[in-house]
Design brief:
The structure is a homodimer of 258-residue chains.
Chain A lengths: L26 H14 L12 H8 L3 H13 L3 E4 L3 E4 L14 E3 L8 E11 L2 H7 L6 E11 L2 E11 L8 H6 L4 H9 L5 E10 L2 H7 L6 E11 L3 E10 L4 E7 L1
Antiparallel strand pairs in A: 1-2, 3-10, 4-5, 5-6, 6-9, 7-8, 8-9
The structure holds a DNA duplex (21 and 21 nucleotides).
DNA sequence: ACGCATTTGTTCGTATGTATT
DNA sequence: TAATACATACGAACAAATGCG
């Protein structure tokens, strides 16, 4: 694991966070990349305990401190979870107490609490140009389209349209959606081996159309929050496009800036 | 700097990020707290170079590695900025290239770019119950109320209402607002010694009222994004309440989840 | 242009503390 | 109690970036 230095003359701000193949990485980042591959390839599965720092150090032939830096970064990115005295675990959406890592909607008064789900539709169809572009597919490729409503104490609050690559979610049916208990991303993870690790959201205010008005029980034209989410798995591969319409008359989308 | 251990039996998930006075802190966190106080009291001012790790280690009588951990956390919280070869600096809103750390609005096509400002109003008045509660003032206390519009290539996009504690912003006038070049938080920092370090936002979709429709050039009732922001300075003290109405017909609020 | 000093970044090693089983 | 794992703390050395003479 030598620390080679090639990288001739990258412009200071050139690296676009994507690949520029810097040809050089600090040792701990090389270790991090190796561990990332292990996660990606399923060598270590969600919820599992990974080897101890000492074992990892021996395996990669580096000091424990170097492994520690790699693990720290992976933990900071929510890919691993460290527990003093127990070990380091692969993060999972399944048993995770933090159900609301991705859902930022909150009642104006009081805390977040689980909402009731109702699946309206789950069909296989061909990707529109827009959906294909987002998911890096070709127009007309197979996709799964899911519609659902989330309700808070009986009142519908969220109306979601979800598009998934058909190739990855072959056996997804309304049946399986209805049967599964726990967060949707938990099902994707355990049932399809697709783990969401990051997402970008674009938020807008829109007027309710007929469909939204019906499912959310609001007037036609009522202002709704439109949340377009593109979710990624390892390697920045997009694996879910979702558009949620939120009724924010008694809820709000919460965000922390720092 | 002894490492005392009292802390009897805090429930595992009890610490509400606020104060529980754990009565115990690792050494590096004690150092961090001391440095935080230095920042808060103005011993190290925004933009300034702070002492080197070696100096800090000597000053606090700890190892360089311990100082390093403290500095790393402060840098992760955007209070300090580390520059290899140069030193560690106090973060500032002034010269900062990251003008958009707090403004998440982005044109649907293309990158963020500075918007044109127009100040509509700057008046001193008494805090309403709602404003007082947010800013931890008493109803009727003096506050400064600012209204402004941000425009993108000539078109108004953001209509902001801003409330500030009158006691902190004594000499804030429309004149000073208009004269200042650079981000508003830069003026607050250099002109009033108030540095914003964190903010919470509550986002909703609302219908444009007459005032918003006028200033943003949209129809009455048009859907707008309402962004309520409460900004904090050191010690989680709220120092700004802001409500922005965003026209999201060609812009969107961008958020990254991870 | 070159080298030197300074500062942060990386890597190793060792020892000890704290949490869990 | 003992063993294991992560957390903290110290020390040392070298690398990389910067700025100055």
């Amino acid at each position: 694991m030598p620390t080679a230095r090639f990288d001739p003359a990258l412009p200071p701000e050139a690296a676009p966070a994507a690949e520029a193949t810097p040809a050089f990485l600090p040792l701990y980042r090389q270790i991090k990349a190796l561990m990332l591959r292990g996660l990606q390839e399923g060598a270590w599965r969600p919820g599992e305990l990974i080897p101890s720092e000492k074992d990892l150090a021996a395996r990669y032939r580096v000091s424990q401190g170097t492994v520690r830096k790699a693990v720290e970064e992976l933990a900071a990115e929510n890919l691993l979870v460290r527990r003093q005295g127990k070990g380091t675990f692969v993060a999972t959406h399944a048993e995770e107490r933090v159900q609301f890592r991705f859902l930022r909607l909150q009642p104006d008064d009081g805390q977040q609490e689980p909402m009731q789900r109702r699946f309206i539709d789950c069909e296989r169809l061909r990707a529109s140009a827009e959906v294909a572009r987002a998911l890096l597919l070709a127009t007309g490729d197979a996709v799964v389209h899911v519609q659902r409503v989330l309700s808070f104490r009986g009142s519908p609050v969220v109306f979601d349209d979800i598009w998934l690559p058909g190739a990855l979610f072959k056996d997804l049916t309304a049946q399986r959606l209805g049967d599964y208990r726990g967060p949707l991303y938990g099902l994707f993870e355990s049932g399809f081996g697709v783990r969401m690790i990051r997402a970008d959201e674009r938020i807008r205010a829109v007027a309710a159309d007929a469909s939204a008005a019906l499912h959310l029980g609001v007037d036609l034209g009522a202002p709704l929050l439109s949340v377009e989410r593109l979710s990624f798995t390892y390697g920045d591969v997009p694996v879910e496009l979702r558009r949620g319409l939120y009724d924010t008359s008694s809820h709000h989308y919460r965000n922390q800036l720092s």
